[in-house]
Amino acid sequence: MTNDHCLFCRIVDGDVPADVVHETEHVLAFRDVSPKAPTHVLVIPKRHIASLAETDDGDTTLLGEVMIAARDVARGAGIDEAGFRIVANTGGDGGQTVHHLHVHVLGGRALGWPPG
Ligand code: 5GP
Ligand code: ZN
Question: Domain 7-107 is of which CATH architecture?
Answer without folding.
Answer: 2-Layer Sandwich (3.30)
